[in-house]
Structures are given as structure tokens and as C-alpha cells.
Amino acid sequence: MADERETLTYELFGTSVRDLAQQVVDSGYEPDVILSIARGGLGLGMGLGYALDVKNLSAVNVEFYTGVDERLDVPIMLPPTPDVVDLTGLKVLIADDVADTGKTLEVVRDFCADHVLEARTAVIYEKPWTVIHPEYVWRRTDRWIDFPWSVQPPLVRRSRPEQ
């Protein structure tokens, strides 16, 4: 059925965080910093930080999706971006909720590439058509995903300047 959806509950989210953290531990990778992609990767980054005992957390805001299955031509990193000096020589774990097209992860990985010792990626979901295949994946699906934090509409609509 074309409109079947993958539903992530808050309980399953907790399970996914622990399972992903266990994958990282089992691989022997010890990140110095967890770089979360806002907004979807923020919860995952926080959870991984606690599970992996990493206190150095950072975030980057990338705009790509503008609605359900609607996106910009290319992802855009929004300011403020982390200072690359703060990432230089570190092992970074990039966290996001989903590798759909993979272009957001690609932009962030490329941002880190020339500065960090090593960058790996962790996502809750991976789609089969993504251009980036994360090292750590909880589940693979080709369905639209209902995340617990975005399945309901916002309580308010903020006006946005015309672009």
C-alpha cells in the first residue's frame, strides 16, 4: 500500500538510541564529539551523548525539507555553524533522524571532512535511495516516517520572511 507509514513512538525512539549507541560501542569507535543535525537529529544526539558518555555535543542547522516530501534544490547550512577549529583533529559522530536523500548528511560530512580526524554517521532510519550510507542505522525503510515530535502540526505558525 502506497500510503503505509513507518511510525516511530517515543518508546521506540528510546530503543533506537540505545541500539545505535550499542552499534557504536561494538564497532570500537569512540567519538570525541557528537554533531547533531537540527532539528531531527537533536534528540538522537542528546541520547547518544548520554549513552556513549560524550559530553561534547554540538549542532548544525541544515534547511532542506520545506514540507511533506517538499524540499529545496540543495540543503543549506544555516548560521551559526560550529567553528571548524573546535572540531579539528577530533573523531565526530554525526547524528540525524533519517538518511532520506542523504544530501543533508553529505553537506555536513563534507563540512567536517578537511578538519576532523574521522567522521561517522548515525541515523534512526535509512532509505534505500540515499546517497550516503551511514555507518550506524537502526532501521531501513522506504516508507514515509511519522516521528513522534513532528507527526502533529505545530501549536503556532510562525511567519517566515519571503525568500
From TrEMBL:
Top-level taxonomic group: Bacteria
MF annotations from Gene Ontology: glycosyltransferase activity
The keyword NAD appears for this protein: no
Keywords assigned: Glycosyltransferase, Transferase
Domain Phosphoribosyltransferase: 13-151
Keyword Lipoprotein: no
Coiled coil: none
CDD domains membership: PRTases_typeI (cd06223)
Annotated PANTHER family: HYPOXANTHINE PHOSPHORIBOSYLTRANSFERASE (PTHR43363), HYPOXANTHINE-GUANINE PHOSPHORIBOSYLTRANSFERASE (PTHR43363:SF1)
Full protein name: Phosphoribosyltransferase
Species, as recorded: Nocardioides mangrovi
